[in-house]
Amino acid sequence: MDRPRIIGDTMIVPSDQEYLADIDAFLEATLRGFGVDESIIADIAISVSELVNNAMLHGNKSAADKSVTIKLLRENSSVKITISDQGAGFDPDSIEDPLAEENLMKEIGRGIFIVRSLMDSVDIEAATTGTTVTIAKAF
Predict the structure, then answer these.
(1) Average per-residue pLDDT in the chain?
(2) Which residues of 73-109 are buried (b: 16+ CB within 10 A; e: fewer)?
(3) Which position has the higher pLDDT, 106 or 66?
């Protein structure tokens, strides 16, 4: 895949951080179309940016032949977003507590913590064929 593709409320992007601005524009336009409040859009945008970065860097290892898929779904007065990579998966229970004293000075490991604090729900499904994170937020 050499460039992002948009199919309805789904965007598929190469594992290249060069496309983060395109993802943000797609996300914000779609959420505005759903009628989501700007303050909630900001929380969702931060969360999606963190999860897409994780998918590109940690999941797909920035492999040019792998992509990340972002799907948006409006369900009544909430939005559900899935971010999927094509990596080897990981054990979600292995995520260390970023508030533990031994982790306070680490430069990585806070992303999922931040996402969990901003979203109403976070579900992580990891498999050997990739990881899918589903987040939801009422608006």
Answers:
(1) 92
(2) ebeeebbbbbbbbbbebeeeeeeeeeeeeeeeeeeee
(3) 66
